[in-house]
Amino acid sequence: MRALTMATTLTSTSSTTLTRIAWTSFPRWGSTVSVDVVVTLSSATSFDVLLTADGTQIDLKTITASGTVTVSGFLLPAWAFGARKVVEVLVKVNSGSPSVAGVNAAHR
């Protein structure tokens, strides 16, 4: 598994729409991607974390407690090996305003 460096664009949100918090662009050399997101739900009760590749959903998790959530899945079959694509982590607050302490990604 190779570590990916993600650009963090946001560390807290109160948006009830999907908002990008981190992204990266890399050439495909494997079949899966995994992203760990550290979330603190200080005044929120529910938070959605979505992982996409070139705008297509790979995984979606709903968080109800602070901690680390892993979103992961298989990359798109149409994504040719060696081609560069954008992988994004999007979040949506269902209530309150959580903060995101860190985002780490890996690819294999």
Largest sheet: 5 strands, antiparallel
Strand content: over 45%
Tally of contiguous helical segments: 0
Q: Approximately how much helix is present in the residues?
A: under 10%
- The number of strands is 9
Structural class: mainly beta
As a whole number of angstroms, the C-alpha radius of gyration is 13 Å
Spatial arrangement of strands, main beta sheet: 2-3-8-5-6
Determine the N-to-C terminus distance: 5 Å
Shape: elongated
Give the secondary structure arrangement, pairings included.
Elements: E1 2-4, E2 7-8, E3 19-27, E4 32-40, E5 46-53, E6 56-63, E7 67-74, E8 84-95, E9 99-107
Explain what you see.
This protein has 108 residues and is mostly beta strands. It has no helices and 9 strands. It has strands spanning 2-4, 7-8, 19-27, 32-40, 46-53, 56-63, 67-74, 84-95, 99-107. A 5-stranded antiparallel sheet has the order 2-3-8-5-6, with no helix packed on it. The chain has a 4-stranded antiparallel sheet with strand order 1-9-4-7, with no helix packed on it. Strand 5 (46-53) and strand 6 (56-63) form a beta hairpin. The model has no long low-confidence stretch (mean pLDDT 83).
Give a brief rundown of this model:
The chain is mainly beta and 108 residues long.
Features of the shown structure:
108 residues, mainly beta, five-stranded antiparallel beta sheet, four-stranded antiparallel beta sheet, 9 strands, 63% strand, elongated
